[in-house]
Amino acid sequence: MLIGDVNMLFSYINTGLRDKYEDLEDMAASEGFDAQEVRKKLEDAGFCYENGRFLKK
Questions:
Q1: What residue spans define the domains of the chain?
Q2: More confident call, 4 vs 10
């Protein structure tokens, strides 16, 4: 896993999606993490993935 704290993970992922990557799967493949694991962790914490970024529900 990348980062344990969900708020830090949220920030890290969204920064990468905004600045460098086309979508979560592209970022995961490039940085070597499991996109589904990250998506589940963030969704369990109250975030949703829409239009290529995570948002607070």
A1: 6-56
A2: 10
| 25/57 Cα distance (integer angstroms) | 21
User: pTM for this one?
Assistant: 0.89
CA 15-21-26 angle, 5° bins:
125
Beta-bridge mates of residue 54: 49
Across the range 16-25, mean pLDDT stands at 96
Residue 47, SS3? strand
8 A C-beta contact, residue 41 and residue 47: no
Distant-in-sequence contacts of 16-21, Cβ < 8 A, 24+ apart? 17/52, 17/53, 17/54, 18/53
